[in-house]
């Protein structure tokens, strides 16, 4: 579903050139859940922007569904760290926003409205359709943002630390919600997080990036049955073992760089 071959990204600034990513070779299968972890500034968000077509790579190639990425695609959605809801629009109107922007859809607005109601029910927001964002908690706002990302039934969802600003309990609830939605819809997800435990609980594979310039340090398979939970996990020993391995990978690379 996603192919990055030899991808590199360099930014030119007033103080010189910065190499954000270097020699990234990553292939993500359809329906797979991949998390990206690494130190701040290692290029995780840049990698998502490249897949989304928001940024052209300096070197290498990016493809989605066997098509070169040359700009934003209708079948790829992007969910940010903050909900970024329009404060004057209702919950339902915020979910419908991508449909209103995209004039080339082959589905009727009524069909998308039905879909929006289904998604809001899926995330437990049935009955909140007419509420404004300020009337919702942070977790509820992020659920609206999740519905907005899903409204056009994307093949690929890109998620840039979407739960990092939430309290621990809400974060746990939304991680479980996301897994449930993923299992129902079979959407391909690439998810950026700073939490190693969250990466293990959510992912089929965890990609570890080195400090800048970001390179692929390792890819770790997570062979733990679903559903998984940040709060209560029947496979807590397995989660702890893999988390310790990921911590070691990050620390090992940091030690190598200091040498």
From TrEMBL:
ABC transporter domain ranges (all copies)? 2-236
Q: Does the keyword ATP-binding apply?
A: yes
* Record-level Gene Ontology MF annotations: ATP binding; ATP hydrolysis activity
Q: Which branch of life, at top level?
A: Bacteria
List the Pfam families: ABC_tran
Q: Print the keywords alphabetically.
A: ATP-binding, Nucleotide-binding, Transport
Name of the protein? NitT/TauT family transport system ATP-binding protein
